[in-house]
Amino acid sequence: MIQLIIIYTGFLLAVYSVIGNDVIQTLGTFLTSNKKTHWTILWGFASVILTATLVYGWYFYDGDVSYHRLDNIPLPDKLMWWYLLAPLTLLIITRFGIPVSTTFMILSIFSSQQIIEKMIIKSVYGYGISVFTAFLIYLIIAKSFESKNSIVALEESKNKKFWIMAQWGSTAFLWSQWLIQDFANIFVFLPRKLSLLELVFALFLILSIMAYIFKSKGGKIQEIVNKKVNAGNIRSATLIDLCYGIILFVYGNYNSIPMSTTWTFIGVLAGREMAINFLLNKKNVKNSSKLIFKDLWKVSFGLAISVFIVYVIQYLKML
Q1: Which of 79-83, 177-181, 308-312 has the highest mean pLDDT?
Q2: How far apart are CA 280 and CA 143, in angstroms?
Q3: Distance between CA atoms of 53 and 177, rounded to whole angstroms?
Q4: Of 301, 235, 297, whose CA–CA distance to 272 is shortest?
Q5: Residue 203 clears pLDDT 90, i.e. is over it
Q6: What pLDDT score was predicted for residue 221?
Q7: Which residues touch 208 (CB under 8 Å, ≥6 apart)?
Q8: Which residue from 20, 38, 77, 140 puts its CA 20 to 30 A from 313's CA?
Q9: How many CB atoms lie within 10 A of CB 306?
Q10: pLDDT value at position 153?
């Protein structure tokens, strides 16, 4: 009985903390640029994509909704109360608007040192690739897509409907790719193969928590997106989502080692911010650099906390 309480309490905390911390990576620009649309419509759209991705993984991967991301991270035979420290800490940090890596925070306590090292290496490389890729892309397109004149022209043109459709399409693509990566963080407390009843229960819980987050317009973490240049513009949001989604699709699926989507997201925003200010607003380069390093410090802080919690749990195991 105690085991079941720990398992489902851990799952509940993981769902709320992971969704609350990470959902803004994929849906933040979507929420910002569609703030006039009622939240139930946005929630319904995201829910359909999530349900399809979850059911697809469950059906085609023999009940494994993590898409094999948890193959090297087995569920312990016995879960003790201290395994709840990670999702509980993540929940508290999320309330302060710090975009920490849920991959490190949640999965590290279940992983061996070797797997942790592989996750860190893959995530750091992902950050570097994201910064470099976004910077090059926006060096090419910034003047045409991010200048004030181009934004005004878009608002007055017939192409606005096309960009609305393009944004919803890029959001669907990115959302599905993020879910494939982060389902491991959400379901790490549950058996690696779910029954149909467990699948339905998990889906109901996730969609309910998402409804709360959408209704609250993203919460504290949403401020990270709102502070970036033109992030609320629908064309900018589309390009951010597409760039992020492609990196997750290509690099994230390179192997089944879990990676931090938070580091990738921060990298995309950093590369974009540097390119835009370098080309269009050189006076703001200094302030932009401070904002980028602030975001990087936040995710590094989260990594440090994750490592600390792992050591605490290892110590408690020896008692």
Answers
A1: 177-181
A2: 7
A3: 9
A4: 235
A5: yes
A6: 47
A7: none
A8: 20
A9: 27
A10: 47
Residue with tokens 């408690």: 316
From the list 158, 138, 111, 149, the residue with the least C-alpha distance to 307 is 111
Nearest to 244 by CA among 73, 14, 43, 25: 25
- Region of 281 please: left (phi>0), alpha (psi -120 to 50) or beta: beta
Radius of gyration for the chain, computed over Cα atoms and rounded to the nearest angstrom: 19
Alpha helix positions (H), the chain: 2-33, 39-60, 85-95, 102, 113-145, 148-156, 160-187, 196-215, 223-226, 234-247, 261-280, 285-318
pLDDT tens per residue, range 63-75: 999 999 999 999 9
* Six-digit token string for 231: 């992030």
Residue 135 contacts residue 271 (beta carbons within 8 Å): yes
Please, what is the end-to-end C-alpha distance for the chain in angstroms? 23
Token duo for residue 220: 């504290």
Q: How far apart are CA 130 and CA 127, in angstroms?
A: 5
Over residues 241-292, the pLDDT tens digits come to 899 999 999 999 988 899 988 889 888 988 888 888 777 666 665 666 676 7
Res. 209: pLDDT tops 80: yes
Per the listing, tokens 């959400």 go with: 186
pLDDT tens, residue by residue, 38-62: 999 999 999 999 999 999 999 999 9
Domain containing 302 equals 2-318
- CB contact at 8 A, 12 and 84: no
Number of domains in the chain: 1
Residue 285 has what pLDDT? 57
Q: State the burial class of residue 303 (Cβ atoms within 10 Å of its Cβ: 0-12, 13-18, 19+).
A: buried
Q: How long, in residues, is the chain? A: 319
Q: Which two tokens stand for residue 158?
A: 């017939």
